[in-house]
Amino acid sequence: MEQPNFSYIDQLSRGDDVFKQKLLDIIKIEFPEEKAIYLKNIESRKFKEAAENVHKLKHKISILGLEKSYVVATNFENNLIESSDLGREEFEDVLEVMTNFLSKL
Amino acid sequence: MDCIIIDDEATARAIIEQLCLEVPDVNVIKTFPNAIQAIKYLNQNEVDLIFLDIHMPDFTGFDFIQTLKKPPKIVLTTSDTQFAIEAFEYDCIVDYLVKPITLSRFEKSVQKALSLSTMPAQSEPSTTESLDDNSGNDLYVNIDRRLIKIDIPSIYLVEAKGDYIYVKTENKNYTVHSTLKKIEDKLPNDLFLKVHRSFIININKIVDIEDNSVLIKKDVIPVSRSNRPELMKRLNLL
């Protein structure tokens, strides 16, 4: 499975380690919150709200360099908009990979 | 250029702030997690440029732009590409940045805003004014993150249902996340009348009236006792 990387963050921080750490700290706080809201909405089958949550999570997926996972998220978001949860398992695998990655930082 | 950043995501705000540090001539004055706070700030302060997220809960970037009487230059920031065409219908929007934003793309955007800010002001009618020019006939509603134009005279019925309103027109029906009060304020008084706490009707579309109900197209709409005198007053009775 595709793994997160610092490609974008390194490009952005251009050697500024203080900024890099600041950004990672923000992501480490914000990502679990967004993930929890998503899980709550998908469990309640609130697909429209869940689509909004997936949309927001997509930014973090792209920040962590997960290009293929971004496509997975986009497809899932579109399915949710159409009131289908097709692709949920694949998307939640992406969230799990991100969770593991961030927990080790 | 003094700028503000509006984005509900802290990560996005931090990234744009960092990108602003990398380019000369851009000074971040303040950042906001939602449009409402930014509107309050802009009521008392002027800025040259706004980095604005489109996709925010409750109040989208496009909703925000419509509240501004004299909008400054705006660069939209979004994960979607689907709004690009709509974005360029607004004169104040100078660019459209797709997240994750790279430095090179960001620099181009700032250059564009800078070059436009040196152009004569007369080429920039404000978005609100241009919308106001059409406000006699058009109403823009936010549906699935898109602003849909509805021809006001074609609306024959508005019904409140919980957090939503159903707007019925000659050609199409719309479900909009809004309140009856909000749409009532936007509709012309001479054409529309609230006949019940859940219904607004277009009085030109009435087919007939019977006791405490009115027939609009094929819909039988209740008329509350308190609203009936106003309805009768508005009719051209023989």
UniProtKB/TrEMBL annotation, chain A:
Gene Ontology molecular functions: kinase activity
Superkingdom of origin: Bacteria
A GO biological process held by the record: phosphorelay signal transduction system
InterPro entries per record: HPT_dom_sf
Keywords on record: Kinase, Transferase
The protein's name: Histidine kinase
Species assigned in the record: Algibacter mikhailovii
Automatic annotation (TrEMBL), chain B:
Keyword Phosphoprotein: yes
Keyword Hydrolase assigned: no
Modified sites of kind 4-aspartylphosphate: D53
InterPro entries: CheY-like_superfamily, LytR-like, LytTR_DNA-bd_dom, Sig_transdc_resp-reg_receiver
Domain HTH LytTR-type as annotated: residue spans: 139-237
Residue ranges of domain Response regulatory in the record: 2-114
UniProt keyword annotations, A-Z: DNA-binding, Phosphoprotein
Gene Ontology molecular function terms on file: DNA binding; phosphorelay response regulator activity
Signal peptide: none
Name of protein: DNA-binding response regulator
Organism, as annotated: Algibacter mikhailovii
